[in-house]
Amino acid sequence: MKEKIMAKASELFLKLGFKSITMDDIAGEMCISKKTIYKYFCNKEVLIEESTEIMHKVVHERIQAIVQKNHNAIQENFEIRQMFKEMFSVGDTSTMYQLKKHYPEIYHKLVNREVNECITFFKQNIEKGIQEGLYRATIPIEKYGQFYYTLIFDINGNTVSETEAQSLELEALEYHTRAMATPAGIIELEKQLENHATL
Predict the structure, then answer these.
(1) What's residue 60's pLDDT?
(2) Taking Cα atoms as reference points, which of 150, 145, 49, 159 lies closest to residue 97?
(3) What's the CATH code of the domain at 193?
(4) Rounded Cα–Cα distance for residues 157 and 25 (Å)
(5) What is the count of structural domains for the chain?
(6) Confidence of residue 185 (pLDDT cuts 50, 70, 90)
(7) What's residue 198's pLDDT?
(8) pTM score, whole prediction
(9) Domain residue limits at 184
(10) Which of 11, 43, 103, 199 is 20 to 30 A (C-alpha) from 184?
(11) Is 19 helix (H, G, I), strand (E, B) or coil?
(12) How far apart are CA 137 and CA 140, in angstroms?
């Protein structure tokens, strides 16, 4: 039952945001009593913290599934961005902004948990792009991975509107890619920008 509650809570938090969803909402959606939820979670903060761990796991499983499709490095980044766009289309207020504003301790734990995995993935993507001739071979990989991580998390933690956050993420991805791209990479970037403009 605990796993079912966390799964439903995660779904509702993603769809409607951390602040607006109450324990009553979750109980009503599951047709169980609020008392049943409190049997496993002493308060909403504990439920949010455990739910963000599930979201973290799901996000990284989906990223790995995209990586295994063996797209080129630039397409891979655009596919991952599209996955985030679909997962976090919650309405007016950015999920990460809500988490940072209303539950800052949980937000900072999440960011600290994400940092190593995200930067490792960004570095692997850069190495892949260099091997494919899409990124310049002279890139300081560690620094560029850190730059992009800082940019993306700053957008998500400080942009109120989900629509604006997603727009800024696309611009950040273009900025990041142009900074690294070879002439062949620029051609691939323009192709991906055109493909994703309609999505």
Answers:
(1) 86
(2) 159
(3) 1.10.357.10
(4) 25
(5) 1
(6) very high
(7) 62
(8) 0.85
(9) 55-197
(10) 199
(11) coil
(12) 9
Q: Is 72 left (phi over 0), alpha (psi -120 to 50) or beta?
A: beta
Mean pLDDT of all residues in 122-142: 96
143 burial type by CB count under 10 A (0-12 exposed, 13-18 middle, 19+ buried): exposed
- CB 60 within 8 Å of CB 118: no
φ/ψ of residue 91, rounded to 5: 125, -140
Distances (CA, A) of 30 to 1, 11, 26, 48, 181: 11, 12, 6, 17, 49
Q: By the 8 A CB rule, do 135 and 180 touch?
A: yes
Terminal alpha carbon distance of the chain: 37
Contact 12, 93 (CB under 8 A): no
Burial label, 131 (beta-carbon count in 10 A; 0-12, 13-18, 19+): exposed
Closest to 50 measured CA to CA, from 13, 79, 93: 13
Answer whether residue 24 is part of any domain: no
Hey, how many other C-beta atoms are within 10 angstroms of the C-beta on 57?
A: 11
Location of structure tokens 């109980």: 27
> d(Cα 172, Cα 152) in Å, to the nearest integer?
7
Tokens in use for 156? 């998500």
Pairwise CA distance, residues 32 & 48, whole Å: 18
- Length of the chain (residues): 199
Q: What are the residues facing 181 on neighbouring strands?
A: 135
